[in-house]
Amino acid sequence: MGNRLSAIATRTGDDGSTGLGDGSRVAKHDPRVAAMGDVDELNSAVGLLLAFGVPDDALAMPALLAEVQQDLLDLGGELSIPGYTLLKPERVAALDDWLARANATLPRLQEFIRPGGTLAAAQAHVGRTVCRRAERAVCELAESQAVSRSVRQYLNRLSDLLFVMARVLARAGGSAETQWDRHRKP
């Protein structure tokens, strides 16, 4: 991994470029930088979800989200160093395991859910949408540059996890899920 920054205001990006973890410089509008930025925003959205407070119940959501934040830092590190692998396939399997356990506690959906509910549930929905954007950016990057399969799988699974987590959090907070009313009259 590259050197750690000892000074935050380096002024090296004043020309519209930024440094990658391998020491190379690319334009700040480069698809790799866009993907890294979306993943960074996603990590902040997960941090805000943790700050809202999630119950430490049988699903151990706070510990899971802390691991997700670590994974997202690994994922961002991997994106910042072309050809380098940090995120292990086992992390995708860990999300799959949590999804299976959490889904078993929820009723089957009949319609789309309107995002909302409790503050934590609403923030999980925001995280889900940011995750989908990060996934789109990574998939676009993967069309022209190497991106590991684990990175793409992880983001796909994480958006599912955040959706299921929103459902769990709404119920834990006593908020009923509001489903899309396809028959409402305008």
Secondary-structure topology with pairs:
Blueprint lengths: L16 E3 L5 E3 L3 H22 L8 H20 L8 H15 L15 H24 L6 H24 L14
Antiparallel strand pairs: 1-2
Describe it:
By secondary structure, the chain is mostly helical. The protein has one domain: Hypothetical Protein Ta1238, Chain: A, CATH 1.20.1200.10. It contains 5 helices and 2 strands, in the order ββααααα. Strands 1-2 form a two-stranded antiparallel sheet. It is elongated. 32% of the residues are buried.
- Largest sheet, if any? 2 strands, antiparallel
Number of E-type strands: 2
Distance from first to last alpha carbon = 56 Å
Q: Could you say how many structural domains there are in total? A: 1
Coarse morphology: elongated
Order of strands in the sheet with the most strands?
Answer: 1-2
Count of alpha/pi helices:
5
CATH topology assignment: Hypothetical Protein Ta1238, Chain: A
CATH class identity:
Mainly Alpha
Please mark out the parts with pLDDT under 50 across 5 or more consecutive residues, or reply none. Answer: none
Radius of gyration over alpha carbons? Answer: 18 Å
Share of β-strand residues: under 5%
SSE topology string: EEHHHHH
* Reported CATH architecture: Up-down Bundle
Helix content: 55-70%
Class derived from helix and strand content: mainly alpha
Average pLDDT confidence is: 87
